[in-house]
Design a protein that fits this description.
A 3-stranded mixed beta sheet has the order 1-3-2. The protein is mostly helical. The longest helix is centred in the last third of the chain and has 42 residues. Strand 2 and strand 3 form a beta hairpin. The radius of gyration is 23 Å and the shape is globular.
């Protein structure tokens, strides 16, 4: 059980990580350094990091427990969402949850490619395996390496949020269609079996 003093120390450590993260972005990716300046900043205990277009929210417990490299990546990730106006564009999509996933694919691919020492065309990057990219290719700095819990399918390289969303939505519909006949067939088989059993009893 953490005491108030323990929490205060954790918050202080987290604030230092956020400051170092800002310095990293200012030095390495200065375009993104001012993106969140117009937003209100809120810190709480249980958030990770997020932005809704008006507020940048970060959780001190998440930041304290994460590595500095992960904090740098996630901070840059949120700034990229804001720079690409993803919060506004998500409002036009029917499935907001799927839209968030599509936006994460776009941003994670972008940050990963920014950090690679070797550059790939969109076409060539789409052929790569996500785990091979993250674990085998050399990066300029570990802060560009996507955390293990991030989503990134290389086939979406060079695509917009809307393009990735359309593909994910189509794949979800196709998966649902493949599962539906199996369920209907199962129900039909059970019904036929009941009728057959009834016929034998009549005999």
């Amino acid at each position: 059980i953490m005491t108030d003093q323990d929490n205060s120390r954790a918050i202080a450590r987290a604030e230092k990580k956020i400051d170092r993260s800002r310095q990293f972005i200012l030095q390495k990716e200065c375009f993104f350094s001012t993106v969140l300046m117009r937003l209100k900043v809120e810190m709480d205990e249980h958030s990770t990091m997020s932005t809704d277009g008006s507020t940048w929210r970060w959780g001190w417990r998440f930041v304290d427990e994460a590595s500095q490299y992960k904090v740098n990546f996630v901070n840059l990730h949120e700034r990229a969402h804001e720079a690409l106006f993803h919060c506004t564009r998500l409002l036009k999509l029917k499935d907001k949850k799927l839209g968030n996933i599509a936006a994460d694919h776009v941003v994670n691919i972008m940050i990963t490619r920014m950090g690679l020492t070797q550059q790939f065309s969109d076409e060539n990057f789409r052929k790569l395996d996500r785990d091979w990219v993250v674990n085998c290719l050399p990066f300029k700095n570990p802060s560009y390496k996507m955390p293990e819990d991030g989503v990134m399918d290389c086939k979406f390289a060079g695509m917009t949020l809307e393009e990735v969303y359309d593909i994910l939505a189509k794949e979800a519909d196709e998966q649902e269609a493949r599962e539906r006949p199996c369920e209907e067939g199962k129900e039909g088989s059970e019904g036929e079996g009941s009728e057959g059993e009834g016929s034998e009893s009549d005999e």
